[in-house]
Design brief:
117 residues, mainly alpha, 5 helices, 3 strands
Length: 117
């Protein structure tokens, strides 16, 4: 069984989903954290947002691991860094990019607990 929760950034989706998963004995995969990790990496590299192909290429090059309580990007803990206002503001570029979305959805389907490229 898969349960998804959708809504705007900062609405508490992850907190609600984490609590629900715990209560039902399910695993929790924060897919939003994956898009945030891509946006964070793009910000760090100074990638231009008006180049969607570059963002998609970057997404395919990243190693993103999402665990129960932390997010690793290329082996580095970015759990707190991906929750900044700057990343929240930029995440829609990754989430609205069809090629990034296709890649991340493919990774999400590989493993329900940890997702890596």
């Amino acid at each position: 069984m898969i349960v998804t929760i959708d809504g705007p950034a900062g609405a508490g989706k992850s907190s609600a989903a984490r609590a629900l998963a715990r209560r039902l004995g399910f695993r929790f995969l924060d897919t939003g954290a994956m898009y945030r990790a891509v946006a964070f990496a793009a910000l760090r590299r100074g990638l231009a947002w008006d180049e969607p192909a570059g963002l998609a290429l970057l997404a395919r090059q990243l190693k993103i691991e999402v665990g129960d309580d932390r997010v690793l990007l290329d082996g580095h803990d970015v759990t707190q860094a991906i929750r900044t206002v700057a990343v929240t503001t930029a995440t829609h570029y990754a989430a609205n990019n069809p090629a990034v979305r296709e890649h991340l959805v493919g990774l999400q389907r590989l493993s329900p607990a940890t997702t890596t490229s």
